[in-house]
Specification:
The complex is a heterodimer of chains A (536) and B (433).
Chain A (H helix, E strand, L loop, with lengths): L5 E12 L2 E12 L3 E5 L6 H8 L3 H4 L5 E6 L2 E3 L4 H7 L1 E4 L11 H5 L6 E2 L2 H6 L5 E2 L1 H14 L15 H14 L5 E5 L7 H16 L3 E6 L2 H7 L2 E6 L2 E7 L5 H9 L19 E10 L6 E9 L3 E5 L6 H9 L4 E7 L2 E2 L5 H6 L2 E4 L3 H5 L6 H12 L4 E3 L4 E3 L1 H15 L15 H14 L4 E5 L7 H18 L2 E5 L3 H7 L2 E6 L2 E6 L5 H8 L3 H11 L1
Parallel strand pairs in A: 3-10, 3-11, 6-9, 9-10, 15-22, 15-23, 18-21, 21-22
Antiparallel strand pairs in A: 1-2, 1-4, 4-5, 7-8, 11-12, 13-14, 13-16, 16-17, 19-20, 23-24
Chain B lengths: L1 H27 L1 H17 L3 H20 L2 H5 L8 H18 L3 H29 L4 H23 L22 E3 L13 E3 H22 L7 H25 L9 E3 H18 L2 H11 L1 H6 L4 H27 L1 E3 L7 H11 L9 H26 L2 H36 L1
Antiparallel strand pairs in B: 1-4, 2-3
Classes of the chains: A alpha/beta (536), B mainly alpha (433).
């Protein structure tokens, strides 16, 4: 009997990708009319858990998962997202699944259009039944009314505010007749504060109608506001399960981040030394979809390692890409007192800024060419080195390239058969070392490194990080390191800025406490501290 | 005094708004405008009489509209301009060649042609659709090249295999060597004028009947919806229709009682009805579930797939419909021409239809029936007037001929460039905001 109380139960869910454990023994139970929040950093296992719930192919093509899922007390085995939808599990997507050229009604009823028969459809089948626009509009109106939306059901979606779009998505889900469980995947990420507040009210309403809600987010105050229960994941493990009235934002922030920080040995920088600013950005805006930067002022000191942290999609990746001019950018970038030409990767490179891209295989490497060419190609282009000049024509200087490559292979401990090996045959870690080798070949003053340890194994991770520290300490190179892994930033950086919502949320020392890091990552730091100011 | 000033101010604002609207309208319809002006100026300089021009234009409209209409559905399915309607035209021609060989004349010949071309067009359309699904995002260039490739196979078949490998005995159609079809085939023994000569009416009478039908249509619509309150826009639209056809009817009555040359123009009613049926068919399809799926796939393939629509299947259906319409369009075209240029009749079909559609104001992602018809009118106006206008202005008819070719290719290039340009502007605006 007890089972029936819960709409969804997930029991002992574990999942590994080729021996790499990403979820361990997760238990989760959601009652009808309950808002259950799932909290965690990027990579904590939230999306994997949802992928399992929706039967995504990534799960089944990698050997399935362990544990069982029960819907209203019945054991279910979901093989595809379509199946999940049929069982009454709905999803409100982070990016909108809306067609701009369509009216609200057409979007709500997308591929669930109501049709009526006509004389042609009697012969050729139901695909040729005419749309019953009136009935469609009636259903849509009902769904919109449930959400207290006064928007006309025939308005075209194109041009209506972003906040409304989210509601249309929700209207689509609650219009589905048998909906039992609704998953909100970071629904407030793109909304303004008042829009987010409206959304939370709507969630309360949906909850009252008896639908269970799984609310995936990293905004802690929203969780405190609407959630009944909270499940906290960290590194694929269930850290805590709490009732929301038994906890508070500070505790949640601590739980979200809390982990040991392993310091990679290096002497502390002299705090007092009066250091020059080498690179400064003013009101930097970068149009990189998914990682948009919305106005950042930042000073980078000569000879420091600056860490840029924050959750995925908040804009931290956009900063380095903007400085390099790879994505459309506006604002001022000042290098050693002189303005940099915007949107010109060539100018940035010529002015001795080097970049190790987060998109290693896409932007970073020429996968079908040899190690040596990958290491020297940018230097050949920008600095005209490794080239023999015969006045009328030029030739590649094979001898010098080989010497240089061998030096780099030794210095960075690149594991390869020889310097002519093709890049695509190397492991992720060695590929990353080659990206760094190429940046070093340019002998840069400032080195921008994005996600240097993404997708590489633990041993290689350590070598990469140590290399960065060594470059900084021995050669005095200024390094700006962007990473999703806070622990990694804290182990090598002199100071760390946290980006949230495309803006700087705050700056911290590596040894600042976990709570501050957690609050900043969640974008709560400023809010809480300004509240504190008002009270005092 | 004060009042007057205020009035003036308001008037200024109104004028500003109006000029804004006009500006937007001009920018949006730039291509169409330019060709409308070219057509009018060309007509004035050509020295052609109005009845002669109208007669020529009507012939070309009844001949070519079908093929242009065949392009609309793939555009709406997000597949761009389907240059591969050439394959449809080939399917039509194969049927016409067969029927001419069997010497089945008149309406039955025409119907047989249409029936025969369907299975061929189905296969061609299916294969084209398969190919275009493999070349997503590059459908237009793929369909263009496919048309060239198909032309090669077509030539191989009719020039080498037919009479050689595949036996065919027909002294009139086969080249004297016994292998391959002749370059031109006379259709007098088969479908020449098969549809056109069933029923013809003089222009004034046709116009009068059209007016009567329109009034009846509006009347029936209002009668059926008498219980409900109709939208103001619909009522206004109906009023405009009735007003326009009344003028047309008055004009026809006036012409009928003169000995104007307009009385000598004869309209092939059956062909016109066929074109109207295609228009109604297209409108109908777009109002069905299939049509909604088509549009959804056209607007965003990713979202369509995510909401459970089989985008690849829908795209293939769109191309099949287009190919069948093109096959029939080519058959109607040939019955009007009366002669089949075996190796040339289909070659330019795609280009000319695409150019006409673009001149009508359509783009690679948007097309309506109105744009198709308007495009045919403007495109063929240029075709009719440019040789004579060229001769009268520059003293050289050749120049006008060049201009026609220039128009066909130029407009396609220009429209595609303008489409890309518009997208760039949009992207730029989104960065600013």
């Amino acid at each position: 009997m007890e089972n029936l109380e819960y709409v969804l139960q997930m029991k002992n869910i574990s999942k590994d990708y080729y021996g790499n454990c990403v979820l361990k023994d997760i238990n989760l139970s959601v009652k009808a009319g309950e808002i259950h929040a799932i909290l965690g950093e990027n990579g904590a296992g939230k999306s994997t858990l949802m992928n399992i719930l929706f039967g995504m192919t990534v799960i089944h093509s990698t050997g399935g998962f362990d544990g069982e899922i029960m819907l209203e007390g019945k054991n279910i085995n979901i093989k595809s997202p379509q199946e999940a939808l049929e069982l009454g599990i709905g999803m409100v997507h982070q990016e909108f699944m809306l067609i701009p050229g369509y009216s609200v009604t057409e979007n709500v009823k997308l591929n669930r259009e109501i049709t009526k028969r006509n004389f042609v459809s009697r012969i050729f089948g139901e695909k040729l039944e005419t749309l019953d626009l009136k009935e469609m509009a009636k259903d849509t109106r009902k769904a919109l009314d449930t959400l207290d939306m006064d928007i006309d059901e025939w308005t075209r979606v194109e041009g209506i505010p972003v906040g409304y779009m989210q509601f249309i998505e929700i209207a689509r889900e609650i219009d589905k007749k048998n909906i039992k469980l609704l998953v909100f995947d970071e629904p407030t990420a793109v909304l303004t504060e008042s829009e987010a507040a409206n959304l939370l009210t709507a969630m309360q309403k949906i909850k009252e109608s008896g639908i269970a809600i799984l609310f995936i987010t990293h905004r802690l105050d929203e969780v405190m506001e609407v959630a009944d229960n909270i499940t906290m994941l960290r590194d694929g493990e269930l850290v805590a399960q709490k009732k929301s009235d038994e906890t508070n934002v500070i505790e949640l922030a601590e739980l979200m981040v809390g982990r040991k920080v392993e310091k990679i040995v290096r002497e502390k920088r002299d705090e007092k030394a009066n250091r020059k600013t080498i690179l400064e950005v003013k009101d930097l805006r970068v149009m990189m979809s998914g990682e948009e930067v919305k106005g950042i002022d930042l000073k980078i000191e000569e000879g420091e390692i600056l860490g840029i942290g924050g959750l995925a999609g908040q804009g931290k990746i956009g900063i380095a890409n903007g400085i390099m001019g790879i994505y459309p950018v506006s604002g001022d970038i000042i290098l050693k007192g002189e303005k940099l030409k915007l949107n010109s990767p060539k100018d940035s490179l010529e002015r001795k800024i080097a970049f190790v891209s987060e998109d290693r295989r896409g932007v970073g490497l020429l996968l079908d060419t040899s190690i040596e060419i990958n290491i020297v190609v940018t230097a050949m282009q920008i600095k005209k080195t490794f080239i023999r000049n015969f006045v009328l024509f030029t030739q590649i200087n094979q001898k010098r390239i080989k010497e240089h490559t061998l030096k780099m292979i030794k210095m960075l401990d690149i594991r390869c058969r020889n310097e002519k090996q093709l890049i695509k045959k190397l492991s992720g870690g060695n590929q990353q070392k080659i990206c760094i080798a190429r940046a070093l070949t340019l002998a840069p003053d400032v080195l921008l490194v994005s996600e240097p340890t993404r997708g590489i194994d633990v041993g290689a991770k350590k070598i990469v990080l140590e290399t960065l520290v060594r470059l900084n300490r021995d050669l005095g190179m200024t390094i700006v390191m962007t990473s999703s892994e806070l622990a990694e930033l804290r182990s090598v950086c002199d100071r760390i800025v946290i980006i949230s919502g495309g803006k700087i949320e705050g700056e911290l020392k590596p040894d600042s406490n976990d709570t501050d890091f957690g609050l900043m990552m969640a974008g709560e730091y400023k809010k809480i501290h300004s509240r504190g100011d008002e009270q005092s | 005094m004060q009042n007057q000033k205020n009035d003036k101010k308001e008037l200024d604002i109104d004028l500003l708004e109006i000029s804004e609207v006009v500006k937007k309208f001009l920018v949006a319809n730039m291509v169409t405008m330019v060709f409308a002006i070219l057509g009018i100026v060309g007509f004035m300089f050509s020295g052609l009489s109005l009845p002669f021009f109208v007669s020529e234009l009507l012939i070309r409209m009844t001949r070519n509209s079908f093929l242009v209409l065949a392009l609309i559905i793939p555009v709406l399915a997000g597949m761009g301009l389907n240059f591969a309607i050439v394959l449809g035209a080939m399917a039509g021609q194969v049927a016409v060649i067969a029927v001419t060989h069997w010497e089945i004349p008149g309406v039955w010949g025409l119907l047989l042609c249409m029936a025969l071309s369907v299975p061929l067009a189905l296969v061609f359309g299916y294969l084209t659709g398969k190919l275009l699904n493999k070349t997503k995002g590059k459908e237009m260039i793929a369909s263009l090249i496919l048309a060239f490739f198909a032309n090669g196979i077509y030539q191989l078949f009719f020039l080498v295999l037919l009479g050689g490998v595949i036996p065919m005995q027909n002294e009139v159609m086969i080249l004297s060597g016994g292998v391959g079809l002749r370059v031109s085939i006379n259709l007098a023994t088969s479908i020449k004028d098969a549809a056109d000569h069933i029923w013809r009416l003089s222009l004034p009478w046709s116009a009068l009947s059209f007016s009567a039908l329109t009034v009846m249509y509006v009347g029936i619509r209002r009668y059926l919806n008498r219980a409900k309150k109709m939208e103001e826009r619909t009522i206004r639209k109906h009023l405009v229709y009735v007003a326009l056809v009344s003028i047309l009817a008055l004009w026809s009555l006036y012409i009928m009682n003169t000995d104007s040359m307009f009385n000598n123009i004869r309209i092939p009613i059956v062909t016109v009805i066929a074109i109207i049926v295609v228009c109604i068919f297209t409108t109908f399809i777009l109002k069905t579930k299939l049509g909604q799926d088509l549009k959804t796939v056209g607007q965003d393939r990713h979202i369509a797939t995510a909401s459970g629509i089989d985008a690849n299947r829908i795209r293939i259906i769109a191309i099949i419909i287009s190919t069948i319409l093109a096959a029939w369009g080519q058959i109607f075209f040939l019955q009007k021409m009366g002669i089949l240029l075996t190796y040339g009749a289909h070659a330019q079909v795609g280009l000319f239809a695409v150019a006409a559609l673009l001149i009508g104001g359509a783009s690679v992602s948007k097309a309506t029936i109105g744009q198709a018809i308007l495009g045919v009118v403007l495109f063929h106006t240029i075709f009719i007037v440019s040789p004579l206008a060229g001769k009268n202005i520059f003293g050289d008819a050749q120049l006008g001929e060049f201009f026609r070719a220039f128009v066909a290719y130029g407009v396609v290039g220009l429209s595609l460039a303008m489409h890309a340009w518009g997208k760039q502007i949009q992207a730029g605006n989104s960065l600013k905001s």
